[in-house]
Amino acid sequence: MKTALVTGATDGVGRVVARRLAKDGWRVLGHGRSAERGQSLVKEIEGAGGKATFLRADLGSLFEVRRLADMVKNETSELQLLINNAGIGSAGDKPGRQQSTDGHELRFAVNYLAGFLLTHLLLPLLKAGAPARIVNVSSAGQEAIDFGDVMLTRGYSGGRAYRQSKLAQILFTIDLADELKSAGIVANCLHPSTYMNTTMVKQSGTTPVSSVETGADAIMQLAVSPELEGKSGLYFNVMNESRANPQAYDAAARAALRKLSLELTGL
User: Cis before residue 124, ω within 30 degrees of 0?
Assistant: First the structure.
């Protein structure tokens, strides 16, 4: 049985993806912060004849990210799929700039840095499970990273923080694809859908214009479609291959982000 880890699996599009994978015969390791929602997901999947385990962690803490990786290693010796889906939206710029447990700008920490660290910690399991796939759930909302003020101590806005963190995911994906091309692991990223009917979108005060089912279709394509076999380092806008912000294709920017990320995570 193939094993998948889905972060942010207890709500929104992550929950739909977790259910679909389980229905397709995958063993799902579903991450989330709420034990109540996590247990209800496991109950739902098991009630439909699937197999799932809930893993609780707060990705706003690098210690907790490391603990999550240890929990995954205790559950399985190999992974065929990692979906970095957990994230924080722009939340309508309220309550202003926040910091993670480690003192980093919160959206950069949760949306990008946690996935960067988690992916690296789980690479041995993905290599053991090869052919394997990594899917980073990004966004069409992207803004070039200001390497002079990555933590946005000046001119902060929730929207800017969100867009920068989402572009960071894309730079990371392109780097990963290059790093893993001989390991039998492909890494791709996507904008799943615009303003899905998720808690994140509702909290930002935005009216949803698409469904989590549409977003799940797009994520599942990158996760399991035979057409993506061997294709790596790509950015998709929903179902179609697209181009991200130009900074994603700047090798110097990717190198700068990689250096900073290694320092911040202590890898």
Answer: no
Q: How far apart are CA 64 and CA 192, in angstroms?
A: 26
Q: What is the pLDDT of residues 2-60, one digit of tens each?
A: 999 999 999 999 999 999 999 999 999 999 999 999 999 999 999 999 999 999 999 99
Residues 120-137 as b or e (16 or more Cβ within 10 Å = b): bbbbebbeebeebbbbbb
Catalytic residues, by residue number, are: 162
Domain that holds residue 210: 3-265
Rounded to 10 degrees, the C-alpha dihedral 35/80/222/139 comes to: 40
How many helices (H) and strands (E) in the chain?
9, 8
CATH of the domain at 256: 3.40.50.720
For position 66, what pLDDT does the model report? 98
